[in-house]
Fold:
Amino acid sequence: MAEQLKAKMILDKSYEISKVDERIYGSFIEHLGRAVYGGFYEPGHPEADEQGFRKDVIELVKELNVPVVRYPGGNMVSAYNWEDGVGPKEERPRRLELAWRTIETNEVGTNEFVDWAKKVNAEVMMAVNLGTRGIDAARNLIEYTNHTKGTYWSDLRRSHGYEQPHNIKTWCLGNEMDGPWQVGQKTAAEYGKIAKETGKAMKLVDPGIELVACGSSHAGMPTFPEYDATTLDIAYEEVDYISLHQYYGNKANDPANYLAKNMEMDHFINTVTSTCDYIKAKHRSKKTMHLSFDEWNVWYHSNDQDKAIEPWSIAPPQLEDVYNFEDALLVGSMLITLLKHADRVKMACMAQLVNVIAPIMTENDGRSWKQTIFYPYMHASLYGRGISLKPVLSSPKYDSKEFTDVPYIDSAAVYDEESEAVTIFLVNKHLSEDIPLQADVRSFEGYSVVEHSVLEHEDLKAVNTAGHQAVQPHNRGEAALTDGKLEAVLKKTSWNVIRLKK
Ligand code: AHR
Structure:
């Protein structure tokens, strides 16, 4: 008879990785498909507020407690004129949007987005166009958003009805500038130079800002990690973060291999961290570069249907991945990976937020609902704030097509000293076996289990629709804690959130 699989863990409050920067639970809205128009903005919708923002969407975003939202792109920003999106709406031009080959009406722009972000209690992470434009447009934009008054651009903002500056703190210097799909693609030397000079000018306008330089578009780019190294070599002292982007898919329909893909994400983060530290050493710099994983998610379901979209339509249904249960498990594992790197990854954006590869879906003029991936994102954002702890975990392992020694159990834990709460996030990737877990949590004296929430489903391909939440968490997990020993059964293919409180 085969031996029963089991997992063991030691979790101690002194095994600190780092304080979690809450901005790792950020998200992203691009002018793409129905993210803006028909997504969070739809005047005439029965739920629209006085500015045309859908209140049902606002409520769903608030449930996720999203701290920061990246905007307005993405690929779109590389040919975007920010001036098109401010001032009287009736005067705003319609433009060909080149990244996604649609028509951009510019009904929503910087000021509307800042207003919307306030309504969902999020900060804005703004990207500037370093594709078709550069230093001049970027320094004008930051003067418009962040300077108080008495100059051309700040007074223009005031004349548009915004007396107070928006004080946007975090700025992305372009987007995926290594990508041949980018309007205005640049070599690392070209990009490093423009990022450095643009960043310098922006910090002259507002020294309080933080800047994110583009790293490689994903780990599979042929110039990765050299692109990142060259960029940092040029701009190290001007920038504060380097960006990482990565999407995964299961086109081959190999769930065991798919669920292991966060190991690749882990390796990607380690490589970028080493690249940053190499440049730090080369420059004899005292500054440690942090990582902004500002696009991550699953993206593949919609690839084929997107090919059929008519060019130059307005807000077509682009990148509308319908996520299934196994996607939620991988998203949970990716969140665990981000938490394990809380010492270096200080910002991260699930890409994206509404309709476009998103946890929230809407119908034009209709309903809105939560996709499967909504739930692990929500759990991590709500309960993953505090100190990221390093669980010492011994888990049975498996091999898959691309990976060896994949732990069946993935885990991260967060301790919030103030509220005396500990949350353990766990994924069981085993396709057919429940795995019992025994954890030594003796350092958390006087704590007990307040909730063991589980996301599970018999069918890995189960999806949520407007009318039916087939995949949603329940609180019937049976984790129990006695004498410093926490025991739980982790159901096959499940996402678990075990919350302890004193
Ligand atoms: O999020 C969708 C797209 O993916 C973004 O526009 C781009 O930055 C990335 O390639």
Observations:
- Residues 30, 73-75, 175-176, 245, 295, 351-352 surround alpha-L-arabinofuranose (CB under 6 Å).
